[in-house]
Amino acid sequence: MKFEIVTILPDFFRGPLDYGIVRRAREAGLIEIAVHDLRDFTSDRHKTVDDRPFGGGEGMVLKPEPIFACVESMGMASQEQRRAHESLETVVLLSPQGRMFSQSVAQELAGLKRMVLLCGRYEGVDERVAEHLADQEISIGDYVLSGGEMAAAVMVDAITRLVPGALGNAASARQESFTATALNDGSLNCEAPDSTCASGGLLDYPHYTRPAEFRGAAVPEVLIGGNHEQIRKWRRKKALEKTLRNRPDLLEKQPLSSEDKRFLAQIRKL
Ligand code: SAH
Question: pTM value?
């Protein structure tokens, strides 16, 4: 996967994408990240990337010409071909007005070969970029950031984790929060007798490491006992408990097993 980030702040990306899994994935050649300075695609002496909004109002708006010139220099398939999914490329405009980024959108995008991430600033980007250059607008959440750079870094990180080989232990991606593992018959893997596969579309279960007792707080007994079936049940129950408490909306979307329903009834009685 090649990420092409278009920004007026190229230095911003020194750091956030140089650590951990993203760094290792870059070093292993699983992903490539190119950062393009929008000012390199201006044609005036002052390297102007923004201008005042038509119709008046606050702030500045990123001009369309440098953004079009930058993307057109990349030799991508046409917007029509990309939108028809005839190429494994996409041009994303980061925007609070976009469709919401999520683990499933990350999964969908992880299957592509190349992704351009256009980072807005100021009041935003001339709308013709969304209409005639980008294939989609994506938001990382219902809040307004000062620029698309943070959002682009979030997307690169979440998508990289899903590129095959990026995680040392492939199983750990499957059991994380929000990840539902589908079985061959299309049902969800909620009851697999695997002590570490607890999440299935729910929030992750709690993790503990040494020391077994810290400031009087002990690690739950069951995790030390080594009974895998009991550990699996405990983790599933805890994942359900935390999901019910923090994200009840996720439970509504989940096909729940009879064991899950029993656990939930127990939790609700507490
Ligand atoms: N006036 C705009 C906000 C502009 S914020 C509005 O009200 O919708 C400036 C830039 O930050 C945007 O162009 C976008 O690229 C980025 N940005 C801000 N919030 C974002 C979010 N939640 N997700 C993705 N990008 C965001």
Answer: 0.91
